[in-house]
From TrEMBL:
This is Carotenoid isomerooxygenase-like isoform X1. It comes from the Eukaryota. Its cofactor is Fe(2+). GO terms for molecular function: beta-carotene 15,15'-dioxygenase activity; carotenoid dioxygenase activity; metal ion binding. Pfam families: RPE65. GO terms for biological process: carotene catabolic process; retinal metabolic process. Keywords: Iron, Metal-binding, Oxidoreductase. Belongs to the carotenoid oxygenase family. Fe cation binds at H177, H230, H301, H490. Binds 1 Fe(2+) ion per subunit.
Length: 497
């Protein structure tokens, strides 16, 4: 029986592939899927003898696969951040990350040194942005969970400049997922720190290219703590924030800055608090007074959210039952698991549906809702046909694994819970994209594209093109990089046209 190789998530990219290499193409790629596939993810695992302890900490590696009628090419480049430059110059890790403590080359500095660190905390924060790639108003950015963006030249993946729009708006963190609202503008959710505690902020980026602005603010349910937010929901009329009971304690963040410590210890899991839903009306940008909760789950992504004919909200979510998976992402656990069964279970995401009864809810009482399983088979990195985002939909696609296969790309039929898969020995799917057929005749008339790693050869990478209707293989693009091909988090497709 095959055993899933979690250590692939720990790969270190020792050499960039700066000169694009020719890739082999087999099968038939639809013309509407021609273009550039840009991926972001942690791939720099060490500096000198110092290794990162957690996969969230790895330095960003940008990877691009270009597909056209004349062939395909691959390239990769380290994201050129100040954190990368500082670590390279020191030959060790001098900037603390989520799960890795930094080497303090200047020593503790005594009382005044601690005061200086607090006063200049931003200079001690990482600007590594290893989560996603964002295309916004004809510009492309590498982004992470913080307020730091890096504008990219999409041709060679070099950094043009560091974008400070979120800092100017007062945000210290921001969801690495962005969505287009019904008025055509792009929105996301971030956090700010005020004199009275943290705030959630909705930030809007106008379609005309004007600077972004904060259009809504709301309070966390804890006075000095805020939930860790990675994604949010958006329907035609509402924006939905999920506060799961895995939250950041900002007093502990200050302590971590003083000690040049890592940030994983600033989080706390309180399952007795349940999971809370905040609904903001886009027409006024005011939060509704209605209060909703459901069972304690660690929500990673929204699959989709939409409004029913009667005015209720449907939230389809990817969730873990606990934050144990965060601990599992420590390198030592992935390379040599102490308990394979527990690791497999912790990494398995479940798909839930929560129905929010806006049409009948009373503002006078908190309403506890039920999170129902959408399917007995779960997956992560969910994607749907983008034309159906914020609308009722039929199909979702994601990446999963079991104890019995390498990795698989799955298709869920939402109404029945039926799941079908594509899997191939030795191939490990990481990120997915859904590319719709411009002349589609059905919701699943398109291709699912998956960036895959190989367990046979660290330098071998594959881009799969699958039929969205039946998950059959249409084509593959294979390339051999100059160095290791590393795990990707999220990415974007830039069409050739």
């Amino acid at each position: 029986m095959h055993v899933y190789d979690f250590s692939l998530r720990c790969r270190h990219c020792d050499v960039e592939t700066l000169e694009p290499v020719v890739a082999s193409v087999t099968g038939c790629i639809p013309e509407y899927a021609y273009g550039d596939y840009l991926f972001n993810g942690g791939g720099i695992g060490k500096f000198g003898d110092a290794e990162y302890q957690h996969t969230f900490d790895f330095g960003a590696v940008l990877q691009k696969v270009s597909v056209s009628s004349s062939g395909s090419r691959y390239m990769s480049r380290y994201l050129q951040t100040s954190t990368l430059a500082r670590n390279q110059k020191a030959g060790t890790i001098v900037v603390p990350e989520f799960g890795t403590k930094a080497v303090d080359l200047n020593g503790n500095g005594g009382f005044f040194g601690k005061i200086a660190k607090i006063a200049n905390y931003s200079s001690n924060m990482t600007d590594n942005a290893a989560v996603n790639v964002l295309a916004l108003n004809d510009k492309v950015y590498a982004i992470g969970e913080t307020s730091t963006w890096h504008e990219l030249d999409a041709t060679d993946l070099t950094v043009i400049c560091k974008n400070t729009d979120l800092d100017k708006a007062g945000l210290v963190t921001c969801c690495p997922h962005f969505k287009r609202s019904s008025n055509g503008n792009v929105v996301s959710v971030g956090q700010s720190i005020t004199a009275v505690g943290p705030k959630y902020n909705v930030i809007e980026f106008p379609a005309d290219g004007e600077p972004p602005s904060v259009v809504a603010r709301t309070n966390p349910r804890w006075k000095l703590s805020a939930s860790q937010l990675h994604d949010f929901g958006l329907t035609q009329n509402y924006l939905i924030i999920i506060e799961h009971p895995f939250y950041i304690r900002f007093v502990e963040v200050i302590k971590a800055v003083i000690k040049s410590a890592c940030y994983v210890d600033t989080f706390k899991w309180c399952p007795e608090d349940n999971t809370s839903i905040t609904v903001i009306d886009q027409r006024t940008w005011k939060p509704l007074s209605l209060k909703f909760t459901f069972e304690s789950l660690l929500v990673s992504h929204f699959i989709n959210s939409f409004e029913t004919e009667c005015g209720d909200l449907v939230l389809d979510l990817e969730s873990f039952t606990s934050p144990d998976v965060i601990t599992d992402f420590f390198i030592s656990n992935l390379r040599q698991p102490k308990d394979r069964h527990a690791l497999d279970a912790d990494f398995s995401e479940s798909l839930y549906r929560v129905i929010v009864p806006l049409s009948t809810a009373s503002p006078s009482a908190e309403i506890h809702l039920e999170a129902k399983l959408l399917s007995e088979v779960g997956f992560g990195q969910s994607k749907i046909n983008p034309k159906y985002e914020g609308r009722e939909y039929s199909y979702a696609y994601g990446v999963a694994h079991t104890e019995h296969d390498h990795g698989r790309v799955s298709k869920l039929t939402v109404s029945t819970g039926e799941v079908i898969h594509f899997t191939e020995p030795g191939l490990y799917p990481a990120e997915l994209m859904y590319i719709p057929n411009p002349s589609e005749k059905a919701e699943d008339d398109g291709v699912v594209v998956s960036f895959c790693l190989s367990s046979r050869d660290a330098r071998l990478g594959t881009l799969l093109f699958l039929s969205a209707a039946d998950m059959k293989l249409l084509a593959r693009v294979e390339f051999t990089a100059a160095g290791a091909v590393t795990w990707t988090s999220h990415g974007i497709f830039i069409p050739e046209s």
